[in-house]
Amino acid sequence: SQQGEEDPQALSIQEGENATMNCSYKTSINNLQWYRQNSGRGLVHLILIRSNEREKHSGRLRVTLDTSKKSSSLLITASRAADTASYFCATALNTGGFKTIFGAGTRLFVKA
Amino acid sequence: DAGVIQSPRHEVTEMGQEVTLRCKPISGHDYLFWYRQTMMRGLELLIYFNNNVPIDDSGMPEDRFSAKMPNASFSTLKIQPSEPRDSAVYFCASSFGSRVGGYTFGSGTRLTVV
Question: How many helices (H) and strands (E) does chain A have?
Fold first, then answer.
């Protein structure tokens, strides 16, 4: 099964509301990344948080990491219709290589 | 920089034919990754290179798949012979350094094998 698993699988909210997506993983990681994918496009890197960090911000994005629970969350504040996309967490395994495993993603739909 | 460039954007081929996907990474990036995305299996890492050398190809599904990186600015993923179950979107991504930042993805090649 996937190293990273997002929750929920799909999320529908109104413009202006906050969107929270969660990611759980199984093995020790070096870092965790979040990506966005618009329909038919490639993935766009949003933010990276290292295993020794607990929280990170970038604009309207806030990412938390709890290594004891092997989980992370992505919060998008004041969502916009343009935030409609799939969001993936990706974990860089702490196994000496440079292997990054992607979860199945959360499909976010923001209604205008 | 134009970003990671993949070609072709779309490929339709008949079962049994050879397919070659191409990727030009961002200049200066020393890691290159090939991923495959399907509805059933999501994003799967197929192989990655560091300084043109294949480091981990454990994700390559079968011997029908091969990847090369003859120089720092070009990589190919070849499928020979192709099968309908190879239909997917294939992404190339590159990055600089080890675990410093995220990956830059190309727009992908949508492969359909009929």
Answer: 0, 11
DSSP state of B52: T
**Angle at CA of residue B21, ends A87 and B107, nearest 5°:** 30
Alpha carbons B34 and A42: distance in angstroms, whole number = 12
Give B82-100 pLDDT, tens digit per residue: 999 999 999 999 998 755 6
pLDDT digits (tens, 9 = 90+) for B43-78: 999 999 999 999 999 999 889 999 999 999 999 999
Per-residue DSSP letter, B59: T
Q: Is A75 on the interface with B (CB under 8 A)?
A: no
The percent of chain A in helix, strand and coil, each rounded to the nearest 5, is 5, 60, 40
Q: Which of B45, B94, B99, B109 to mutate to test the interface with A (most CBs of A within 10 A)?
A: B99
Higher-scoring residue by pLDDT: A93, B112: B112
HSE value, Cβ hemisphere, 13 Å, CA-based, for B11 = 26
Q: Does A96 touch chain B (CB under 8 A)?
A: no
Q: Of the candidates A33, A46, A102, which has its C-beta nearest B43's C-beta?
A: A102
